[in-house]
Every structure is written in structure tokens, then in C-alpha cells.
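Notes taken during the Thursday session

The instructor put the following on the board and asked us to keep it in front of us for the whole hour. The protein is Tellurium resistance. We were told not to look anything up and to reason only from what is written here. First, the residues (246 in total):
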Amino acid sequence: MWDLFQRARMATVDSGSPYKVTLTKSTPLVSLTEQGSASGHLRINLTWSMRPTELNQPRQRSSLLRRPLSLFEPQVVQAQGPAMVNVDLDLGCMYELKDGTKGVVQPLGKLFGDLHKPPYVETSGDDRFGAPSGETLYVNLDKKDEFKRLLVFVYIYDGTPAFSRTQALVTLFPSMGPRIEIKLDERAPEARSCAVLLLENRKGHFLVRREVKYVYGFQSELDGLYGWGMQWARGYKGEDASGGDA
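Then, after some discussion, the predicted C-alpha cells were revealed:
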């Protein structure tokens, strides 16, 4: 782990921009403490846009080989509606505090959290339309010594399970220092949830670690993957039913 941190620290120095750090498979770790960014309010933002489906793609070469004269035929213009996939992405955070308290902050179940008292994490709410502002979590890093670990995740509540059809980006904006970007651009057909990053206290450093691990289920499957040990029940937007609680 410490060797991994050392490599990540070099990546921040050589990132090519003093204003942005991109976490990747080869450089998945960065220390907010090392950057002087481990205080104030950390803003974590999810934005996404949709890719068109293959309906608008050029004709395949194999089709041209079978019917070479089709090259001179007019192509059928596809309507914009069917060419798009409807995906509703949500941003959430599982937390574990030093005193053993566990829970989740997410729009589902109206578990909005609180920035100024435990769990010191709060969500801005739910963006169902992929607006430019996206969805945002706020973490009170002035209380970082209260945290054991935070798992930030994205899930598809409704619509087609098609992370591969979205262009999703999670960006961390510390109170000072460069922003940190994590792209969700890996192919994951049928996946409904993605563990994006972990925030952890380790050896005097408050670390951000890229995860980008896709699962086919929802929060309970992410819980099992990371050993949170909470009890989960099915929740629905617009109702008081909890999407998950400790």
C-alpha cells in the first residue's frame, strides 16, 4: 500500500496540469494530506451524458462485402428517440466512522445525511435528467479524524443497465489544490452499480483511492464486496422506504 502511495504521489507531480489529477489503473491513489487539501468541505460531483446506440453507426464492413451495391443506397435516417438509452444514475456514499457507526447517504430512501454532525456527509439530492450540474456529495474534512472509510458509489436506479452507454465522470473538488477526476469508461454490460472510490485514513494520510469496480446488483452487493455488514431493504424514490441502512 505504501509503495502504491509513493507512485501515486509522483503521478500528481507529473500530471501535466496543476489544476487536475486523473486517477487511473496505473496511478489509482492520491493523498489529500500530501496536497494540503485535507480540510474544509470536499465536493464530489457526478456528471454524465448519453452515447447514441449502434443504430446511428456507419454500415459494417461485413454487410458491404455481402451486398456491395448497398454502398450506393441511401441510408435510413433513424429517429433520435429510439437511438438513445434512458439511464438514471445516482450518487451515494457508504460510511464507517471510527466509533463503529455505519450507514449510507443517498437520494434513495431520503437518506440525505448531514454535513455538520455525524456522518459529516451530505447529498445535494437527485438529478434524474443528467443536468450539467449533476449530483453532488459534500464531505466535511474538518471531521476527517472521525472517518474510518467512505465508499463513494454510483448506481442505476431505473432504466437500462448500460454503464457502457454513458459517459460518466466523478470529480472531487477539495477546498484547495487540484481537482481529482475518475472516469467511468470501462465496459460493463448489464452492471447496475459501480464502486468508484474509497476515502481512508492511513498512516497519517487521508487518501483517495480509485476503485471502479462494477457489480450486477445494487448497494447490498457493494456492501458484500467491501465487507460493510449492513442490512438492506428495497427502497423506492419518492417514498419513505429506505434503500439501505445499518
